[in-house]
Every structure is written in structure tokens, then in C-alpha cells.
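Data availability (excerpt). The following record was deposited with the supplementary files.
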Amino acid sequence: MDCSYPLLVTAHQDRFIHVWNLEKNISMENYNPIDVVESPLKFATSAVSCFADGKGYAVGSIEGRCGIQNYDVNKEDKNRGMDFCFKCHRNENPKNKSADVYSVNGFAFNKKYNTFATYGSDGTFVTWNKDTKSKYKGSKKMPSPVTACDFDDNANMVAYAIGYDWSRGAEGTKEMPHPVRLFIRTPEMAEVFRPSNTTR
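Predicted structure:
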């Protein structure tokens, strides 16, 4: 679940996502969401996060895909035409058209630019701009999955953690050592924002 007031989203079994407007529909008598929607992704939900401006959310799945869902709870128009899905956290093999696919473990939106990072079981985090539908930069591969990531409010620092994420079950703990580490650094400007005429 995640919240960016007044938007609250929670992910449930069978790929359902519940949407609440915390300004209007939560009371002692009423706990019902304003909307129940099905994830745009085909496989189980692994992560959900609200945009920094509270006007939508991102959903990730175990098959290395993300969905961007625009949802302004204070407007009738949900901007559904702006929604899209994309692949990430995959190692593509163009020769035989196959790919190693990894779970999306989460999202980190930064409040200053409303760009975001995805992080996954492949041991990387990648920064994106949902408004220009562009990829900014991917990190080097870590020795273990990235299990958490976040920006400070001004996008001056990014922190991320690595460790075992249980994506391979209990057996995965026997395959290799999984160091648990926390990294904090200053991101490059190109990782969090680019003027629209220079995005790719």
C-alpha cells in the first residue's frame, strides 16, 4: 500500500487495486474505497506506489513490468488516456528472443521532480520519467536484489538497500551469500530530471 494525500492505494490478491480518497470517503461508518480496479499487468502485483503529486500510482509485477495509472481523486476525468505499461528489470537476449525476467520490488518517487526509480530482484534500480515516458539511467548490478530505495524531499540524496528479497523462496538463500547493505549517495541531475528537449 502507499499514500500521497489524498490518494491511498492498496494492492490485493487476484491483481485487484483499491483506491481511496482520504479527504472524502473515509469515516467511522464508511471504509469502502471509491474504486476497485484490476491491475493492467498480467501477473501478480509485487509493488504499488503513489505519484509524488498524488495524481496517480505505479504498479509493478513479478514479471518485470510496470503500469502507470493516472488517477486524480478530485476529478471526474481520470486521464486514462495517459496510462501505459512498460518492461523493466529484464535481461533481454535478442538472438533467441528470450529474457531473464525479475520481479519489480518497488518504486521511489521524488517530490521535487515527480520522476521515479524502480528497483528489482535483478540487483538494479532504474530512474524514469513517466510524463515523457523515458528511461533516465540504470544503476550497476548489485550482488543481491535491491530491496528498498527512496529519495529525500529535494532529490538531493538517494538511499537504497540490498539483501535477499525471497523472490526464489527459501532455496534461494542457499544458492549464494546475500550481503545486506545500505547505500546513500547524491544522485546525478541526469538521474532525476532532464529538460524535455533532451530526454530520450
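Summary of structural features: The chain has two helices and 17 strands.
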